[in-house]
UniProtKB/TrEMBL annotation:
<dbReference type="InterPro" id="IPR001279">
    <property type="entry name" value="Metallo-B-lactamas"/>
</dbReference>
<dbReference type="Pfam" id="PF00753">
    <property type="entry name" value="Lactamase_B"/>
</dbReference>
<dbReference type="Pfam" id="PF17778">
    <property type="entry name" value="WHD_BLACT"/>
</dbReference>
<feature type="domain" description="Metallo-beta-lactamase">
    <location>
        <begin position="42"/>
        <end position="208"/>
    </location>
</feature>
<protein>
    <submittedName>
        <fullName>MBL fold metallo-hydrolase</fullName>
    </submittedName>
</protein>
<dbReference type="InterPro" id="IPR036866">
    <property type="entry name" value="RibonucZ/Hydroxyglut_hydro"/>
</dbReference>
<dbReference type="InterPro" id="IPR036388">
    <property type="entry name" value="WH-like_DNA-bd_sf"/>
</dbReference>
<dbReference type="InterPro" id="IPR041516">
    <property type="entry name" value="LACTB2_WH"/>
</dbReference>
<dbReference type="InterPro" id="IPR050662">
    <property type="entry name" value="Sec-metab_biosynth-thioest"/>
</dbReference>
Amino acid sequence: MHRRAGSGLSGPVTHPPGILEPLGPGLARLLAPNPSPFTGEGTWVHLIGSDRLAILDPGPADPAHLDAIVAAIGGRPVEAILVTHTHRDHSPGAAPLSAATGAPVWGCAPLAIPGDQEAGFDPDYAPDRVLADGETVALAGTRIEAVHTPGHTSNHLCFAWEHRLFSGDHVMGWSTTVVIPPDGHMGDYMASLQKLQRRSETLFHPAHGEPVEDPQRLLRGLLTHRIQRERQLLRLAGEQPGTVEELTGRAYPALDPRLVPAARATALAHLITLEEQGRVDCVQGIWKV
């Protein structure tokens, strides 16, 4: 059972980790054992190809999880390990999986993150090849396109294959996406949603949650949600200026305490973008219209 809008986990796990699930010809997935209020049931690892493979987002560097990926590969050649972004639930498994399979690591650029935010990122990620926006690579007997979608992180990539888009954390199937400054940027996130609206893929495979069979509807909903949150924060700051903590408390009443830090970060991301647009000011930590 999946819950949306960042409400946390509830109900039984519907996908046991480490079990290969076919999704169609030349595509399968398995779940990493990292459930949390921020990852849902865990991170999905996608295997693209039949006789030859590309592995997308290997997930955490958990030995049992990596053994499950190797078992799912079943001795088939792995031509590349693709990475959407360098959060710790996505990229740390790339290096040990590369060592086990001999496959190069391709995908997003590495990041140097200052301060407290560094804890959420993988500092050891070192790709063999950084893929540019719109770059198409021949892998696993097919062609896969890298699509730069900054916002959730500045280095985030999606990957397009046939009519499918592997949307990483930019578009998730169970929850809205957290945007945490300074690396995360709300203006970039919303622009990237609009970028995906202009594309033709009809099925999204997120790194968290179930496949999205009507992605255009979900993209419209995500943009509407963000616009409504932006308007709410403008209204609250106009009615009574306050700190990020105060505005977040008024914007997200009765929020699960585990999700308060993420809500504050996302509210701050909205406020920073509004400040860049000249619609709010921040004076000594107090946000006002």
